[in-house]
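Posting for a labmate who doesn't have an account.
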Amino acid sequence: MRTLTEIEQYRLTKLERMRDRGESPYPHRVQRTHSIASAVQAFDEAVSDGTDPHETDLKAILCGRLRSVRTMGKLAFAHIEDEGGRIQLLLRADVLGVDRLKQFEDDFDLGDIIQAEGTLLRTRTGETTLNTSALRMLAKSISPLPAAKEVDEEGERKTYSAFDNAEARYRERYADLAVNERVREIFRARARILRALRMFLDNHDFLEVETPVLQPIYGGAAAKPFSTHHNQLHQDLFLRISFELYLKRLLVGGFEKVYEIGRDFRNEGVSLTHNPEFTQLEFYWAYADYHDVMCLTEQMVAYVAEQVTGSTMVTYQGQQLDFNPPWERCSLSDLVAEYSSIDYRKFPTAEGLAMVMREKGHDPSMGSTRGKLIESLFSACVESRLMQPTFVVDYPRDISPLAKTTEKDPETVERFEVFMGGLELCNAFTELNDPFDQEERFAQMGREYSNESGDGHPMDLDYLRAMRYGMPPNGGFGMGVDRLVMLLTDQRSIREVILFPHLRAKQ
């Protein structure tokens, strides 16, 4: 353990003083009759019949973190806070006892978690208060919590904890949560978002399932996996990068609507919108195509927005987003032509497209496939411009190996991605269900992408075997839940919506 600071040493002497008088700073048992919110509600109900609110016999035992203390001779005021609220404590020498009031002033610190017993009343200033007759330490705080502070952010007052920087907040998220109600509310909203997603899909007859996190073959996305090893089975395994191939196996088995919300793992970069461990929602819907999935997607996201924020109009980074269906539908080729001045449909080879990109000032990566070049053009020229919810449809075949081609163009697939607020939110296909075409796609990806690039799809023979039994036509969908939370809580960084984001090792 690190060396204690001077303040921590001082608090430690208080802890030892408590022990010397036989008082445990970390007792085994706790008494609690009400949460703070329920106590305030019970008090309001008790005085609603005209009972004098300045003097009642409504008793309560409350627990919470000590947030403020103000001493005035034989009188002190304090505030404690639990998850649901904050309440004032009135500490009087003639009620609590002279010695106990002195012990409170000497040995209790901000941040301590305490138990307070007494009767509820309302002070002359109108504040609901516990007239405290007994106090008990539940957990002595040795390290002082960072103080909260207000900062001006582009004309708006916001409260932040006084860590040195944002990274310090993420490293000590427990302290960040303890001092920042704003941060706690983000994660309450996250829980409501997950609940609303489940409610929507359940109400549309989707079945929630669980598929393996440890997989012998990774697949379902273009990403580098994390690898591990099972000692007893002498088997190399991968943390999943997607649920897709397992969920579609369930369609073969006779389920028609399945979904999973869980963790995916991709051994890639960390950024404002990427974390190596993230929460994904995927669903697969038999006898549907990407048009059906588009309609369901806009209904689902609008429903979640209204359930969580009370409106389908949401402000994100100063922009008002309108989630009301229908959303705009635009082809990838039209958007790239409009914003990059390159109509890639006129350049059927990667070499020709790379040449015109260089002429227009782009720097395409050597050896990229045509699909990867198109993807880079879209990312550079289009993505950040899409603020209102937009379906971008019809993607190159060579970057979409699990999607069915369009009827008119064998080099284009029935795929859409949704963008809003300049972020990619989700990805969906009319899923390929031809096992022979799928096998050839896997083989083609193996030829075109090296293992190091992370863009290949291994040949999953068991998945191909499942397809040969007959997979119904289906539409599939995947969404980064963390990004939806970002949009609905107005957060620019994914780290703000993940309780414990991955960080570099502390130097």
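Reply:
Got it, the structure tokens are right above this. The two ends are 17 Å apart (CA to CA).
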